[in-house]
Structure formats: structure tokens, C-alpha cells
Amino acid sequence: MKVFKPLIPIQVLGLLALMLISNTTLFSQERYLLAYEKQGDKEMNKGNYDQALECYNIARRFFKTPPRLYYKCGEASRLSQNYDKAEYWYEKLISEYDDEEDINKEYPYLYLNLARASLQNNNPAYSMEIIQNLLEDSPNLEVYNQAKQEYKRLDWIFNNQEPDPTKEVYNLGNNVNSATSQTGSFVQNDSILYFTHLSYTTHKDQYGDTYYSNIFNQIHYTYIDSLHHSPHQVLDIKSINRKNRNISNLCIDSLNQRIYFNICNNLNNNTICEIYYTENQDGIWKKAKKLGKNINLKGYNNTHPHITTHKGETLLYFSSNREGGYGGYDLWYINVDSLETNPINLGPSINTEGDEITPYYSIADETLYFSSNHHPGYGGYDLFSSKGWKQRWNKPQNLKMPINSSANETHPYIYPDQTKGYYSSNRPSANKQANKTCCYDIYKFYTVEKPHREPTLEKIRQEHPFIPALDLPLVLYFHNDQPDPGSIKPTTDLDYLHTLENYIKLQNHYKAQHSKGLRDSVETAALDSITHFFEIELNASKQKLNQMLEYLEDKLSEGNKIDLSIRGYSSSLHNQVYNYYLSERRIHSLKNHIKNWNNGVLQPYLTIIPPLDTLPQLHIKTLAIGKSQSTSPNPTTVEEKRKSIYRLDAIRERKIEIKLIEIR
Q1: In this structure, are strands 562-569 and 618-626 parallel, antiparallel, or unpaired?
Q2: pLDDT of residue 206
């Protein structure tokens, strides 16, 4: 979303471009670079990360990009929650350096932030690789300590990969969600869902560019009808939705006829949120009042109010970054009947050195639901639950996938029977285009009696038929020197699918290396070619492999005897003997995948049954080719070796081919 005008008008930029082509000196080019970089730094300090990124990108047009701009682009992207772009910019910076020591001195947090961006870009394996390297080599004690914390998180993730089969999640769709953020959920009488919606107006300038203004959060609502939600509308209560004010986080106290909410203001480039309430008297919502200074502590954020009545007490829970807590944002409570007293911290079972936000207390099961970025989770903020009351709480439990994800989950609302609820997440969705994790949508989850079942194999075959005459040879690709780098064994324990999934997650790394030293249209073309290979070709081969295995299962179950012919190849790196064994390992990883596929359904067909058979029903015939058919250049220098890894011709030579399926 473009929200500001460039420092130099568009028509002047056109003249500048012409000057650059003709007679502008390097000095003047660098001057414009520094001007836009400086403006980008100012926007970063204000927290305007999208604007900062646009300034940095404009700066790159005027002069050869200095490495520091790549880092700044990465930071602006990460802080604006564009984790895919952040990963790319960090990788781009790394590609500019040959000496690890130099880059660590200049950018001590580079690899740590790359690991965090990769994790939130749903790439935990790569993130773990980076963190392990930091724990072995980081010279910076603070980075080392933070890496230890990230290692604990990643270790938890790898031990909690299986989603809860009793939970189903769906996006509320375009009637509620949009290209901007929707957060906060409060349900009234099981029929109206209130939430925070980012509103704005658009206008076009004389050049046709669209700009946005009057950008404010307002409370909206939608009617609930089973799985359907009506088109959202602005809440027409003037004591809540004030013109040109940021209003958010509504909750209703039905017992006392009050509505609590936040009003947020930008003071000295710092957003300060305060808690207000309005009372209903004789059917009219009165002028909103701000809660006392003991709650709205000056200079601190006091946000995410939630009201609950339990055990004869009405408590207001909220989140605040005030002093006296355990970390950044902590959860606090205060008795509504004693609003003049000081709020009480929920204690160390709930609050951590990180941030805890968006509390919701479910009376039915006496459980607090909240969001945290420090308790063990999958990425940024995850949703947690903890049974208890006031300051006595059980150990928080992660709500697991599919409710949580590698992105951020916040603002839980849980129905009294605990079988369904709403929450907000910035996981990738169809509403988000340029920055797939920029903004939040509202999701609903259900508890189902039986685990969700995937479509039958027969249905999948109908939709995606595999025809050997048309689909062979099937080419499957590998990352450089995979599997088992450096091994001289012809076998591996790795499954091809595992190597492929890790390969796909290296897309940004390949884009940065493949485009190193390139600029403008040449750089764009290089990035497009890598993007096409990773997002189209690799995923297509993965899908086609699965369809082929379904085809084999179908034919084998009918009693057919099949020969499957596979060839293995490598690029020109290393010698022929090594590449022969590498080709063998690549073939063997596919054999492992065939054995493991669909819980081992094909494994019985790979076993010889003496004395009736001399060959198994599914006979795999292999031929390791190595590099004998490689046409990519044989590298002689370090730089040529780097290029030979990331060149498209070499990328396409690291492969195996399923050449033939024959029914004997």
C-alpha cells in the first residue's frame, strides 16, 4: 500500500533518469542515494517500515547498491512482517561478502535476524541450520544468548509438527477480511461478531498513481449465520467510533451495560493506546470516559481490554508494557469494583521476558487464552491456554497447529462450549498480494469429532491423472551435493521428499546468489528464472511424483508386475568417482521415498517372495550416470564454483529421471 509521496515528484524523477543516462556524475548519483537513504532512516525511526523500504529501494536506483542498504531493506521488510522479502534481502547482503568475519563485525545480528525471518517464512529447517552455526561460531555474547533461545523454540517446533486432527480452521472470507488488517474478535449473543477494521480513503494524482489517506482503525461488525458472515459494516455508535481516531479492541460487559475499547494516538512517533468505556443509559450509549491514571499509566501502552465476571468478581484484564512486569508487554488485571487500586500482574506463569497480549478468559472452563511471542511456539505470536484465576495459573499450553502457524496469531475469542472460536492471524491468504504476511485476517476454528480425511485416491486420480506416455521422463531435482554432502557411500537414509522440501525453502538463498552483481532488468530476469524454477517446476515435479506413486499403487494392487527405470545425474563439480556415488545416493533417496510413501503402502511390492519370484512385484532398475553428461562449465576458481552451484544450467543437472514404467 503506497501511503506517502516520493521526496521528488514523479516528473522530476523522469528528468533525473534522463540526466543519469546522459551526463550526471557519480557524485550526484551518490548524493541522491544518500538523501533517500537518510529519509528511509527517518521513516524507520518513526516505525513507518513500508515507507522506509520504498525510500531504500528508490535509493538503490541512483548508484551501485552499498551492502548496508541490503541490510536496511531486510530490516524494514522484517519489521513490516514481509518475511519472504526480508529473507531475500539478508541473503543478498550475505552474497556480497566472501569473509564471514567481516560480515559478522559489520552486521552482528544479520544471521540471527535471517533465522527469525526464515522461521516466520515457514522455513524452520534453514532457520535451525543458521542458529546451530551461530551457537558454534558467534563472537557476540548477546547474539549467542538470543540464538540459544531461538534454538529452544526450534527444538520445540520439530517435536510438535503434527497438527491437531480434531481442529479445522477457515478464513472468514471477503465479507469480513480485506487487503488490510482485521483484528480482535468479540461475539454478542452468538449472532454478531465485532472486530477492528483498518479503514482508509483512496485518491489518484494527475499521473494515475493511487494514494491512501485518512487511515484509521474503526470498529466494524458482521452478522453470523452458521458458516456465513454478512458483509461487514461500521459500528454506528458515535461515542465509540470517533472521526479521525484509531479505535480498536472492543469488548462488551453485558452485566453492567458497558463497552470497553482502545483509543490510540501517535505521540512523538510513538503510538500510545488507552482504555475507554461507554455506558448504556436508557438505550443511549453515553460519552466515552477514559479509565483512571492507575490503569492508563502515562507514557505506556495499555491495550487489549477484556472484561469477565466470575466467582462474584468482575475483572478487567489488559496488556501493558508498564514498568514492574517481567518483560515487554505483560498481562494485568484489576477489579472493576475497585478501579482506584493498582492493577495486578498475572505473574511469571503467564508473563515472560517477551510479550503477552490479547487476553480472553473463558468462564466455562476457567481458562485464560492469550497470545505470546516467548512461550514455546511456531513463529512470532502463538495462542496459548492456561487454567486458573487471578494470579494462580497452570503452565500455558500451546494451541498447536492448525490454529497456530509460523506467522502471528492473536486476539482469541472462545465459545463457552470450547468447540469453536475466532482469532486473528497474518498467515498468507488470498487477500494479501505483494506482502503475503503484511496484515491480519480473522479466522474461525472448529473442533470436529473425527479427524479430517483427505480425498480418496480414486478422486485424486480423477482430478490429476498420471499417464506414463505423457508424463515420463519425470525429472526430480536436488540441492548441490545432496543428499549427505561429502559422503562416498552409494546409499543414504534420507527420503527424497525431505531433501526436496528443504531445497524449496532455499529459494531466497538461490535468488540472492544467482543475481549477485546484477542490476535492473538483468537482475529482474535472473530473479524471475529462479522464482519460476522453485515455485513452478519443483512444486510441479513434487505433485507429479505423488500422482505417479498413486498410479503405481493402483496397478500393483491389480496384480501387475512393474519395472521402474531410474537414472541419476550430477553437475560438473567434483570428480567422476565422487559424482557416481552422489548419483547413486540421489537414486537411493527416491527408493527410500517409494518405500515410505503413504505409510509404506508400496513396501510389500518391493519384497521378493521365494521360491515363486526372482524379482519383486515392483522392480526398480537404476543407472548412475554421474557427471559424464554434464555440459555446465567445470569451475577452477572459488567464484566460478559459486556460480556453478547457482547457475540454471547446473541446477538442472543435479537430478534423477524416472525414465520408464514397464508392465512385465
Answers
A1: parallel
A2: 65
| Length of the chain measured in residues | 664
Euclidean distance between CA atoms 292 and 288, whole angstroms:
13
Helix, strand, coil percent content, the chain, rounded in steps of 5:
35, 25, 40
Instruction: Say if CB 280 and CB 260 are below 8 A apart.
Output: no
| DSSP H helices in 265-378 | none
- CA distance linking residue 108 with residue 93, whole number of Å: 13
**What is the DSSP secondary-structure string of 215-245?**
EEEEEEEEEEETTEEPPPEE---TTTS-TTS
Q: Which three cell numbers stand for residue 53?
A: 523500504
Angle at 138 between CA 132 and CA 143, to 5 degrees: 90
Q: Backbone phi, then psi, for 203, in 5-degree steps?
A: -155, 155
Structure-derived torsion over alpha carbons of residues 69, 74, 76, 78, reported in degrees to the nearest 10: -170
Closest by alpha carbon to 256, among 294, 302, 309? 309
Give me the residues paired with residue 372 across strands: 356, 382
Model pLDDT for residues 240-271, shown as the tens digit of each residue: 998 888 999 999 998 889 999 999 987 656 78
Q: Nine-digit cell at 269?
A: 512517533
Label residue 507 exposed, middle or buried (CB < 10 Å: 0-12, 13-18, 19+).
buried
Task: Give the rounded percent of residues in the chain with a pLDDT score beyond 70.
Answer: 91
Q: Domain 10-158: which CATH class?
A: mainly alpha
Q: Do domains 10-158 and 167-447 have the same CATH topology?
A: no
Instruction: For helices 26-46 and 49-59, give the axis angle rounded to 10 degrees.
Output: 170
Q: Quick check: 1 pLDDT over 90? A: no
131-148 in b/e form (b: 16+ CB < 10 A) is: beebeeebeeeebeebbe
Q: Which of 473, 458, 617, 619 is CA-nearest to residue 551?
A: 458
In whole angstroms, give the CA distance from residue 47 to residue 81: 12
User: Model pTM?
Assistant: 0.69
| CATH architecture for segment(s) 167-447 | 6 Propeller (2.120)
Q: Domain locations in the chain?
A: 10-158, 167-447, 457-663
Provide the grid cell at 8: 521528488
Per residue, what are the HEC states of 241-292? CCCCCEEEEEEEECCCCEEEEEEEEEECCEEEEEEEEEEEECCEECCCEECC
Q: Residue 232, exposed/middle/buried by CB under 10 A (0-12, 13-18, 19+)?
A: buried
For residue 156, the SS3 value is helix
Helix axes 539-557, 496-504, angle to 10 degrees: 160
| Whether the Cβ atoms of residue 128 and residue 135 lie closer than 8 Å to each other | no
Dist CA 237 CA 244 (whole Å): 14
